[in-house]
Each structure stands twice: as C-alpha cells, then as structure tokens.
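Sequence in, structure out.
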Amino acid sequence: MTFCVLPGAKSPLPQKEKRPPFMLKFVGFWFRVPMSVRLLGGFLLGTFAGLAGNIYAREQTLRAAETLEPFGTIMIAMLKMVVVPIIFFSLIAGAAALPLKKSGRVGTIVVLWYLVTSIFAAVFGITMAMLVNPTISVESMDIKNPAPMTGGAVPSLARFLEGLFCNPFEAPSSGNFLAIVIFAVIFGLAARVLLDSEKSAEKTAKAIETFLSCVHACGSVTFKLIDWIMEYFPFGIFILTFVNFARSGAILFEPYLNVILSVTIGLLAMIFLIYPLLLFCVCRENPYRVLAKFREPMFTAFTTRSSFATLPVSIKTLNKIGVSPVLTSFSLPLGCTVNMDGACVLLPAYAILAANAFDITITAANLAIILVTVLFASIGAGGIPNGSLFLLFIILKNIGLHDDQVSFVVALAFGIDPLIDMVRTTCNCTGDMVCTYAIAKRVGMFRPPEG
C-alpha cells in the first residue's frame, strides 16, 4: 500500500517531535529550582570539592583555588556595587512611609516597642556571640594582604559617633556605610513630616510625593538588579567555599558549627523565652497559648524565609483572633520593614568571628560600636533579599576589616545562611505579631471573637 502525497500537502506519516537541546532543558530546570536550594547546593559542592582536594591533592587544588578565586570575589564586588543604593532607597522609602501624624499615640508605642526589642535583641546577640566566641585560625589560609589588626585600628567611640554625621556623598567613597543609613532615615522622616504638615504648600507636597515615587521606582530597579546578581550567587558561593576549604581543610567546620550554634540558640531563645516573657509581663496571660495561635504564620515564615510573603497570613491570623485591623494594617507592615530582631542576633556572631580571626581586640567601646552599627543596620534590612548579609559590609567595615577579609567572612556567611534564615525569618515575624498582640491588649484594640 502506498500513499500519494500531492504537492504542498502535508505528509500523512507521523513526524518526529523536535526535542529541545539538552542544554536548553538543563537551563530551564536550573531556573525552576528555588534559589535557596541552588545556594545550598553550591555550598555543599564547594565544601566537598575543596575538602577532598585539600586531603588528596593539596598542591594542585591550591593552584586551582588561586585560578578560580577571582570568579568568586566578583560576587563580593557585585554586592558592594548595589549595597549602597539598595539600602539608601529602601530606608528613604521606609522612613517616609511612617504615618507619624496619623498614627498618633498607638503608632508611637509601636515604633518604640520595635526600637526597644531591637536594642534588646542586639545586646542578646552580642552576649550569645561572646559566650560561644566563634573563632578560626587564618594562619593556614592564603588571604591576600591579611594585615593583622589590633584594637587600635578600630575607631574610638567618639570618632565613630562623629562619623555617623558626615557628607552623604563622600561617605560611599570612604566606605562609611552607616553614615548613609543615618542620612537616609533622617531624610525620609523629614519628607514625611513635610507631607503631613498642614503648613506645607500644595506644590511642595506634590513635589515630595513625586520624589518619593521616584525613590520607589529606583528601589524597584535596584531590586531587579539584585535578582540578576543573585543568579550568579550559586556559582560564586561554590567557588568561594571551594577556595576556603581548599586552603584550610576541615578546620573550617568548627567556625561554621560555632556560628550556627550561637545564632540558632539565640533566635530560639528570642522566640520561646524572650517573647513569651514580654507577653506575660504585658498581657498577664499564658504566653505559650498565644504563641500557639501564631503557629500558621510562624510555619509560613519558616518555610518561605520571607517576612513579606508571611505578611498576609500574619494579618489574617491576628484579625481572626480579635486584633483590630486598624492596628494590624499599620504594625505588621512596619515590622516587616524596621523590626529585624533576627538580624540583630545574627550579625554580632559574624562580627565576633571576624574580630577573633583577624586579631581585633574586643573592648567595651568596640562592643558599643557593634551594638549601634547592628541596630541601625538592621533597620535597613527590611525588604532586601538576604538583607542581613548585605548589611555585613556595614558591620565588618566598622570593626576595621579590609576588603579581602570582608570577602572571606561574607563567603562563610552566605554558605550557611540558607540554614539559619528559616529560623531568623520566623523570629522576625513572631516579634512583629507579639508586638501587635500585646499593644492591642494594652490600648483596647482587641476584641475576642464571639463563640
């Protein structure tokens, strides 16, 4: 039997489907994998490759590490490129979003609560870091220009406070990130005051609104830039982790475990000891029954690792148990922006690790510098992907580290952050809900659901 195919007609025989090339399929699969999994995979592969090379072929592995290292430090350079604009735009927008006049007494109480708990979390984080005292020997590592430092290299408290208020356009070139944070917060607050002032001319108010719209747009563009940079992170993490383990071997496991231990214990203590104590003191009720009501948003925060993704669940949960929507619509979004208790516990651990590794003397003045830096820097973490780690540049620069030393500590931090971030995000969201619930009870904005 034969088929007669007329010119221009389709053949009745089945045609083989054209399959996409393997590389195209792999690229599609790669982008479907969550970023946290890719980061953790890069860390684990880099650890295995570096550790195996250090044990079985040390000389060849060290040469490979020296060749690959620039491709890892590119990641640090890209982070430094965006850290100033993202913090600057985020803080101006966040500070200007505070409805200072409309929020009144309750809004003031919310802001003060977040400030006090952040201070406490920073002190608690420093205490935990000092007790665990994570350290690592860098003598066996070929860190370029290590330049061991002493406490004299860290600015005095007076010089540090003076440096908080300097030319904001000069600050980035000198690496004074905290001065940018202070200026952005004050600038945003000034914009909000002018918007709320009845004396401000209509033309001025419209101009400020236009400016803030531009700030939001610039922030969105910078976030998109971060999304692009993040696509390189798994490769950068793999290379930096490989380089670190190739040079130091299994000795790196100790500081990793020390940091994870210090931070995780501190975060769990905040969630299950400090927050319940605050609830009991303010509300005079069983705090663990209250926390049990928060279990859905707490689980959401743990699994999504995003305060903003958890926000709708938190608002729905608190409204359901009786907190006024007027309060939740103000307190919880604000908490996502400025209340970073988890970052306040996390950042001191890396600061103490860096100080121990590079022989920086920890004095009372240095601890005060770390406290102030962590407090102000944590305000800038809100809304920034992996915001706590972006702020490491501010913390480490203020205790006197050089760029290559900062790169080493940041590489350590990015390697284990997916493991810590789940608990850190849960701590942040729990702190927001505890604040909102407790204030609702105290100011009469709580009505238990009937039945």
